[in-house]
Design a protein that fits this description.
By secondary structure, the chain is mostly helical. The chain is built from 14 helices and 8 strands. The strands form 3 sheets. A 3-stranded antiparallel sheet has the order 1-2-3. Strands 4-5-8 form a 3-stranded antiparallel sheet. β2 and β3 form a beta hairpin.
């Protein structure tokens, strides 16, 4: 599988083509780079149909504008031979290896899933340089209409971004010289996104009351720091600074773990210190003491291999069953992060401070995605409104 692009050994010379009529159609014969099944690109004479023979295209001069347009990619001189690869072949041989090499593992998996489940079977043999905006429009609308499960608009946006990224990469590598054909492609409406959840303080407190051991420490850490799941997996005892001289302790977020890969955090802003409230500090101190007061190593690690703990497997085995037995619902890890934003908002903390604690790059993300409304708060707000208007009611 190739993952790099080489300069063309066979540059196309400017051609006007040999135009002729055969039967009821006009044709043009010219030389072009052709992709062989084994991946080799060779120069070969090809013949393409241009237009039907009719009143509009009665003589050779009538079809020459169409010929020039057809030969423009061949004569441009700004494309490598790989532009004649099918879009599918370019994605598998060049784009996905680039994503796997240069992007985060979660991005690589997401793009791989989009390719396998939604795009691959629908592309056909369309060549990279022949792909047009109408092809992109048709593709994404076919995906929205024909998918076994109806997709949300957010998922369809991700699919468009994946396709757009393919052509952006091709342009950066000099494989294409034309505009990105995914620009301007519309996104179907799709289904409404599923409701997201945020754990309230009451829900977190109820969990801590029934959980023990590592499960309790994990829930407390997630609920009172708002760290991402991958960041919790990457926490080390060297990153934790207990409280001293009247100031809060803190956890420095230095790394994240996705699958088996340990890597830097998502963004520069993510590499920051998160305050540790006294309640969490007490839980961490007891946990550390039980572990023999380690000074190094992952805080949450497997007993046998000392590698970062698989939080999903652990939750399925040791958290979800306990909560279910006590009438509580487990909604996995990200609701803790939304929950911290929501709980701080309920307590009157301003959005900018919440953004800093969650280490978002934009306060808009904090407001629109992470701060959730709570039914109890809504009822309390309406009661305050009722109290405010009560005196103004006529007797």
């Amino acid at each position: 599988m190739r993952s790099t692009l080489a300069a063309s050994p066979m540059p196309n010379r400017h051609q006007s083509g040999y135009v002729f009529r055969k039967g009821a159609s006009w044709y043009v014969r010219f030389y072009d780079n052709i992709a062989e099944p084994d991946g080799r690109i060779i120069r070969r004479q090809v013949c393409r149909q241009i237009a039907p023979y009719c009143d509009r295209f009665r003589c050779k001069s009538d079809v020459m504008p169409l010929v020039e347009e057809m030969l423009k990619p061949v004569n441009s001189g700004g494309c490598l031979p790989e532009s004649v690869l099918s879009v599918s072949q370019f994605i598998e041989d060049h784009y996905l290896p680039y994503v796997d090499r240069d992007k985060r593992p979660s991005t690589s998996k997401g793009y791989g899933d989009i390719w396998r489940f939604h795009v691959k079977a629908r592309l056909g043999a369309t060549r990279l340089r022949d792909f047009r905006p109408v092809d992109g429009e048709r593709l994404i609308h076919d995906i929205a209409r024909q998918s076994e499960y109806r997709l949300s608009r957010t998922t369809l946006k991700h699919i468009k971004s994946f396709r757009s990224g393919v052509f952006t990469y091709a342009r950066r590598q000099g494989v294409l010289g034309n505009a990105n054909p995914m620009q301007g492609v519309s996104i179907p409406r799709g289904t409404e996104p599923q409701e997201t959840h945020a754990y309230s303080l009451e829900a977190i407190t109820a969990m801590l009351a029934v959980l023990t051991g590592t499960a309790r420490v994990l829930v407390a850490t997630a609920g009172f720091t708002g760290l991402r799941r991958s960041e919790i997996r990457g926490l080390s005892w060297q990153d934790y600074e207990p409280a001293s001289n009247g100031r809060f302790g803190e956890i420095r977020v230095e790394r994240s773990v996705w699958g088996t890969r340990v890597q830097p955090t998502k963004t520069r802003r993510s590499r920051a210190a998160v305050p540790v409230i006294p309640a969490l500090e007490k839980i961490l101190a007891d946990f550390r003491k039980e572990r023999g007061n380690p000074q190094a190593g992952f805080i949450f690690e497997g007993v046998r291999n000392r590698k970062p703990l698989d939080l999903d497997t652990f939750a399925k085995c040791y958290i979800e069953p306990v909560l279910s037995a006590n009438g509580q619902q487990w909604r996995w890890w990200h609701p803790f992060r939304r929950g911290l934003a929501t709980n701080l908002h309920r307590l009157g903390v301003d959005d900018k401070t919440i953004q800093t604690i969650l280490r978002h790059s934009s306060v808009q993300t904090t407001r629109e995605i992470y701060i959730k409304g709570v039914d109890g708060d809504s009822i309390a707000a309406m009661k305050r409104l009722e109290a405010a208007i009560q005196p103004s009611r006529p007797n």
